[in-house]
Automatic annotation (TrEMBL):
Sorted UniProt keywords: Ion transport, Magnesium, Membrane, Translocase, Transmembrane, Transmembrane helix, Transport
Bilayer disposition of the protein: Multi-pass membrane protein
Gene Ontology biological-process annotations: transmembrane transport
Transmembrane intervals: 14-34, 97-117, 137-163, 184-211, 326-347, 367-386, 406-427, 461-489, 545-567, 573-591, 644-664, 741-765
InterPro entries linked: PPase-energised_H-pump (IPR004131)
Gene Ontology molecular functions: diphosphate hydrolysis-driven proton transmembrane transporter activity; inorganic diphosphate phosphatase activity
EC number: 7.1.3.1
Primary localization class, coarse: membrane
UniProt-recorded name of the protein: H(+)-exporting diphosphatase
Any one cellular-component term (Gene Ontology): vacuole
Entry's localization field: Endomembrane system
Amino acid sequence: MTGKALLPELWTEILVPVCAVVGIAFSLFQWYIVSGVKLTADRGASSESEDGKNGNEDYLIEEEEGVNDESVVAKCAEIQTAISEGATSFLFTEYKYVGVFMVLFAAIIFLFLGSVQGFSTKSQPCTYDKTRTCKPALATAVFSTISFVLGAVTSVLSGFLGMKIATYANARTTLEARRGVGKAFIVAFRSGAVMGFLLAANGLLVLYITINLFKIYYGDDWEGLFESITGYGLGGSSMALFGRVGGGIYTKAADVGADLVGKVERNIPEDDPRNPAVIADNVGDNVGDIAGMGSDLFGSYAESSCAALVVASISSFGINHDFTAMLFPLLISSVGILVCLITTLYATDISEIKAVKENEPALKNQLIISTVIMTAGIALVSWIGLPSSFSIFNFGTQKVVKNWELFLCVAVGLWAGLIIGFVTEYYTSNAYSPVQDVADSCRTGAATNVIFGLALGYKSVIIPIFAIAVSIFVSFSFAAMYGVAVAALGMLSTIATGLAIDAYGPISDNAGGIAEMAGMSHRIRERTDALDAAGNTTAAIGKGFAIGSAALVSLALFGAFVSRAGVQTVDVLTPKVVIGLLVGAMLPYWFSAMTMKSVGSAALKMVEEVRRQFNTIPGLMEGTAKPDYATCVKISTDASIKEMIPPGCLVMLTPLIVGFFFGVETLSGVLAGSLVSGVQIAISASNTGGAWDNAKKYIEAGASEHARSLGPKGSEPHKAAVIGDTIGDPLKDTSGPSLNILIKLMAVESLVFAPFFATHGGFLFRIFS
């Protein structure tokens, strides 16, 4: 009934790892170019050789204004070292705690899955085809545990490498800003590309190698092989949760403390070196926005691949052992790396940025170009990597699907991601009316600013939800749950470009902070502020992508879980499911409450410490004495490590408790409820926070007549905008981005433990029935 894919198996075996290696090589090449910007007083040392390209003909502003060049470079290097050391020490502390969790949870996976068949080593009938024999449940337990550890280690590594690259690039971006805004943009963007390509290629390569190594043991039992691979997604997302929550609490405690005392009470500029919390704030950008986000998007990528592979293994691809078609998700990611490579070269070597206002369009063009080229790439992969007709598992039956239908599934996910990205930009960029309206509301104080900001966030949910709904309907109609899984992969196929754009933001933010602390001229600060404002919007776009893909990924995982656990239908009229739905819909609120309160209590300590230093250190306000940065760094570190554990436990333990005590039907209700409410809260929280941040920047920049009427810095409307920004900080950088991990993580965890829940679940209902 089904043919073979045009692409021979041998070519697939070569193509996937080659694309991954090309991605890693490209990221190292970009890093080598960035390293050409020297942090020594070597005049005019620069990465770019082409004179006149991207503002290279500018004279050094320092030379014009007679500032000592050597002392500026030395100061930048010193600040960069402080930020890098702070970020490294925090991540090592966090990873110690996370490492203990990893070992404990690996043991739980082994014990729970091993107990399904009483730790028997005998072969068993396959779950979906009882006529065939499959490897014992004990093998699934062992290999799921191994893939969990591999996913966790890759996730941690992704976050750590991203942080190292960002802290390496921040001062270099500052120094290049002396030569023109185009030069600074290129350094920040190249550095973001290093992280994007390393992460995409590493995730792909580790998954590919894992599949091939597991195949040696599993042989023809592809059902068992790909079931055990799901542990990879669970490992990736569980580390991302702690990275996002811990990093988010760290960065926002420092940010809120620095802003409230520095800007509102003491009327000093952002990133002023007199502010004791300023180093902690800049460290936070790297551990939250870079390391946390890197782990998060790696988790999404790993889970969407795992969800697609699990469904494919029980479809005609797996039954007929068509390895090329089986690896269709990995082929999409491989082509994605090549497409992003072309797109990145366009930004760094073909187009040229000459003016400040060209930053944001250049970043948006990256998204558009990568999406257009990727559409053609998906068409090619669907044509050569899939049989013309095949069957897909659809809740107990096999649905016949054509290869062009699967192309449409991936393409609809890809374009839905772009729509979500642009809607997010519309609601969070200060170039458009929604944010300008929020800024205008600051005339009458902080209260109206908060009301307008909340309304904007709620309204910004509408179009992304329709985009997600349409992509779910289209992809499910064509190819059941496999269609939804590859739609999520489509959204994430340009992950290297998405991450490059996302990482660019915190690097530019840090660059501005370093310029302020090093006492560089206001013209340089204006340039880094322009880079940062563009980065703020693109960071919001990145969060939109992450949330949209999380919705599709968790739905695909939910479908795989329902199939694996043997649930025929999820009937919302049965009390078991209804109670699950209600509890599931409540979980994002409980989780958000925990993370918001954690930021609030940590910020409280930070505010008190910053006030204490301003009041007790003589000469601090005059700039003759140095603040005690280390104490503020310690407050953020201690608070985030302590406070990340309860929200993490809530997410990780809920599926285990519900599945064991109440059974798979109630758990399926919990997953559906958390997906529906979590997506809405995540989008509104991220966009509200982003809008408040950019409303404040709109007033500070004073680029239009309207903005100047609200300013300058220190005016009453500006103070109201700063208060809005500080309220939005935990929403956009802690609760919002962490919620997408909550919905994915509970779904992938339920899938991994599905055999255990199907055998031993519903303990309470069994007692009372």
